[in-house]
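Notes from hallway chat w/ T.B., transcribed later so I don't forget. T.B. wanted the structure written out for a chain they're using in a teaching module, and asked if we could keep both sequence and structure tokens in one place. Agreed to drop them here.
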Amino acid sequence: MNLTNKINKFIFRGYDIRGVYPTDLNSDVAYTIGKSFGSYVKRLGKSSAVVGRDNRYSSLELANSLIQGILSTGINVIDLGLVTTPMYYYACIKLGNPTGVMVTASHNPKDDNGFKFAFDERGNARGEMIEEFRDFTFKMDFEEGNGALSTYDIRDEYIELHKRSLDFGNRRIKVVIDPGNGTTSIIAKELYEMFPIDVEVIFGESDPNFPNHHPDPCVEANLDALKKKVLETNADLGLGFDGDGDRLGVIDENGNYIATDKYMIMIIRDIINKVEKKKFLYDVKCSKSLSDEIERLGAEGICYRTGNSYTKAKVLDDKLPFGGELSGHVYFNDKWPGFDSGLYAGLRLLEILSNSDKKVSELLNGINEYYSTSELKFKSSDDRKFKVVNHIKEYADEMGYNSLTIDGVRITFDYGWALVRASNTGPNITARFEAKTKEQLVMLQNEFTNLIKLYNS
């Protein structure tokens, strides 16, 4: 391990550090980032940091190098070992230490890796916080010292948190869960079998090659095997989890994919009369079905920018009882401490069903339906994607369209909306479209995808 200034600046993204191993991230880069992180937080008056890692094949090497870099600045390190990201979050809470790094690339391909990190009580670094840290890193002005290394096992306390935060009814539910060979494999089966539910597991072995499907449960194609198993076993629902365990995908009893914004409708309908503050957060990708339902229930919806680091901070800062985003991150802040966990989010839906005689599909009866696309991705280099989105913003202004620019540009029409934004997790432009009719949806999609291709060429 050696210090290096040969670091790709584009690994410093909007919500975290993320790149390809070993091209962008290797032992030297991890050691340097650890040295920088330790120096940065030491100057903030911190004395220790928490570190965890997911099950990717490069995570142990990168975590060890990162830890050595942090220790070399005089900052103590508490090593959690192999944990899901939600387990890391809870360890930070139990230890009373908000400073730390989780080594993970979440749902990215197997050769990617990265660092989610927090300097202090502000939560995961994001936006300008990451830009400042990037510039600090490239200055190579680091502290020296000899920190102490210790370990901590959060597993039992994390399981106990679930026991305290759930109240199952008398109806016994049958569920199929799919860890996708990701890090939830280390705890999912044990955790779910502690509750009065019948559990079947597919792809439950930890395997960093993700041999069965890509570890992103909010891409419907990745849940095909889960759909089949739900139908084969006559299960009440299926639940899929991403690579580091902070996101959820849902399949109903008929084998249909339930998008996160519709999952959020089911949750809000359940808790609306159980919480004092009736405000709920959703991101710019979410369907109007959700905002319509929040309004129908007499509550207030807050449309916010996409990104786990942003949405979670907003829910906690505004003391909202619940919020989420289309990508599968949801935040319970009622009887759960506000961080995103796919396993817990799935258990909350099981809890609702156990106290009801309804099927999953019936929990969505009466909602307003719209025609919408999935989240569409267009490959675009990291130095070009933001320029393309700016061109779309300029186009919307020239056309006199009604635009929301909190995150990319969301253009609203009487009959629907179009969203174009630069991905903060990879070299992509993402887009989503929704309308009242199929014809209007096609018209919207054609208009803006043609513009994306034009400006991206």
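Follow-up for T.B.: The mean pLDDT is 96. Might be a good example for the class.
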